[in-house]
User: What shape does this take?
Amino acid sequence: MTDKRIVLTTCGSKDEAEKIAQYLVENRLAACVNIVPQVRSIYWWQGKVESAEELLLLVKTTTEKFTQVRDAIRRLHSYELPECAVLSIEDGSAAYLEWIEDSVK
Assistant: This one.
């Protein structure tokens, strides 16, 4: 187990996804943010099934920076309830994990 994390969030527009990604990287809250286009989401919202075309953001960060990442997503996002889910990185290339650490210092 490492202290590295991948944070998932989705956005409804390319501009919003890029704005959030740029902010997180520029402010050293994330080493990298991948923006995956054309994600189709089907979900429950306010008592009914909804669907939307979205972009998925994969945010590479550390446990220490997660709270700031979560707060930034909440502040910068247009959704009433933006996704913010964290996955632990169990293991990986030592050099890559070190790069994440160095990038968020």
Observations:
- The domain at 4-103 is CATH 3.30.70.120 (Alpha-Beta Plaits).
- The chain has one domain: 4-103.
- The chain is about 35% helix and 40% strand.
